[in-house]
Amino acid sequence: MGRLPNSLARMVLDRLDPELRPVATASVAVGIVIGAFGAVFGVTAVAAGGTVLQACAMSALVFTGASQFSAASVIADGGSTAAALSSSLLLGARNGVYGLTLAKVLDGPLARRLVAAQLVLDETTAMATAQSTRREQAAAFWLTGVTLYLCWLLGTLGGALVGSEIDPERWGLDVALPAGFIAMVWPHFRTRQGRLAGIIGAVVCLATIPFVPVGMSIMCAAVAVLVGIRPEAEPA
C-alpha cells in the first residue's frame, strides 16, 4: 500500500523547483504518515457495522478524520444517524475557520477553490501557515492535501478490508492522529504568533467545555488560528 504514494512522491519532488523541495519533502512526508492512519478509520467503521464501500465513500466525500471517527463512534454506541451527522458537522465546522486563514493563499478560479475547500484540514493548515512565503504556503497546502487524501483513501480501504481483526486501542493507534498533529504544530511555537494562538486556543477550549455540547469547544478554540495568520508572508 505504501509503494504507490512513495513512487508518486518521488516523481513530484524530482519535478519541483529546488527551492521548494525542503517544503515539499516535509509536506509529502506528513501526508503519507498521517494519511496511513486512515486504516484506523477503516477498521473502526467496519467494526461499527459499516461496509467497505461505506467506509471508503465517507473518506472520499467527508475527508476529515475527527468528523469521521465521531460519526463511527456514535453509530457504534447505538446512536441515530441524525446524532452522528450533527456531531460530525459540529467538529467539521472548524475547517471553515481554517479556510479564512488560507483565503489569500488559495486564490484562483472557482473550480480550483472548490477543490481546495475539500483539502482544508488541520494538517494542511498547519503545514501551510508554517511557511514564510506565499509560494511556499501554496506548495505546502497542495502537496500535503493531495498526498494526505490519496493515502487516507488507501488506508481506509486497507483497514476496512482487515475489518475488526485489529483493535486500534490495543495497539495504541487511537492516539496516532493527535500525536501527529502535535508534531506538526510544534514548530509554530517558535514564533510569537504561534505561541499566542496556542495559548488562546487552549484557554478558549478549557473555558467552554462546561457550557457547550460535546465537540463545540474544539470549534470555538479553532478561532484562535486566526491569530496565527502571517500577514508578512511574501508573495514569492
Keywords for this structure?
236 residues, mainly alpha, globular, disordered C terminus
Count of helical regions: 13
Oligomer: single chain
Mean of the pLDDT scores? 76
Strand content: under 5%
Sum up the overall morphology in one term.
globular
Residue share in helices? 55-70%
Q: How far apart are the termini?
A: 36 Å
* Largest sheet, strands/sense/barrel: none
H and E order: HHHHHHHHHHHHH
Question: How many domains make up the 3D coordinates?
Answer: 1
Structural class: mainly alpha
Q: What Rg do the Cα atoms give?
A: 18 Å
Q: Please report the total strand number as a whole number.
A: 0
Q: Report the uncertain regions.
A: 230-236
Brief overview:
Helix content is 68%, strand content 0%.
Structure characterization notes:
By secondary structure, the chain is mainly alpha-helical. It has one domain. The chain has 13 helices and no strands. The protein is globular and about 45 Å long. It starts with a helix and ends in a 15-residue tail after the last helix. 39% of the residues are buried. Mean pLDDT is 76; it is low at 230-236.
Helix and strand topology:
Layout: H1 3-15, H2 21-35, H3 38-47, H4 52-61, H5 65-76, H6 81-92, H7 94-102, H8 110-118, H9 122-129, H10 134-162, H11 176-185, H12 192-208, H13 216-221
Helix pairs in contact: 1-2, 2-10, 3-4, 3-5, 3-10, 4-10, 5-6, 7-9, 9-10
